[in-house]
Design goal:
188 residues, mainly alpha, 8 helices
Length: 188
């Protein structure tokens, strides 16, 4: 059996494809309708205004809305004060009441409150575990410990011989003198 070359023709029984020109002729044309635009014809606005102005109206004669107000405009500041009646100040509907100051605590009460503050206690535990406080926690801790120190000073309960800041004590000590004296004792 010999090989037959494939062709692009679909054969006698296949669908018939028409040329593009014939397809265009057979296609139904759309009904052409005039586009209805929105709005009126150009220039209608002014012609309508003029037509209305020219028609006699019963109330006040010729009223052309394009002309504007006939009220005289004051040109000097003195005229403005005379021309405008004084306006009453607008009263607010809501009444403003001053906040009542909270009852101030005595230093003893404030100290007791600080010692019972559970959040401050948690922060103290974290600091003792050598965690670094950041953000709001650090600000709160610093503010409360500073206030605690102030209250202790105010009440005379602070230990003057024991500083609250360990770094301050570290800076005050003279390490050279201690180291040198220890070496002298070992040699002698």
């Amino acid at each position: 059996m010999t090989r037959q070359k494939k062709t692009r023709n679909s054969g006698d029984n296949g669908p018939r494809f028409l040329p593009a020109a014939e397809v265009r002729k057979q296609r139904e044309r759309k009904e052409e309708s005039k586009k209805s635009g929105s709005g009126g014809k150009p220039g209608q606005r002014n012609s309508q205004l003029l037509r209305k102005a020219s028609e006699p109206s019963g109330n006040s004669g010729n009223k052309d809305p394009r002309l504007g107000s006939k009220k005289p405009v004051p040109l000097l500041p003195e005229d403005v004060a005379d021309a405008q009646p004084l306006l009453k100040p607008i009263q607010p509907k809501a009444s403003v009441a001053k906040a009542v100051a909270a009852a101030t605590l005595t230093p003893e009460q404030e100290l007791a409150q600080l010692e019972q503050d559970s959040y401050l206690q948690q922060l103290l535990e974290r600091v003792e575990r050598e965690e670094v406080l950041t953000g709001k926690d650090a600000k709160y801790f610093n503010r409360m410990t500073e206030r605690y120190e102030q209250l202790l000073q105010q009440l005379g309960l602070a230990d003057d011989d024991e500083p609250l800041d360990p770094l301050a004590e570290f800076e005050r000590t003279d390490w050279r003198a201690q180291l040198l004296s220890d070496d002298d004792e070992e040699n002698g």
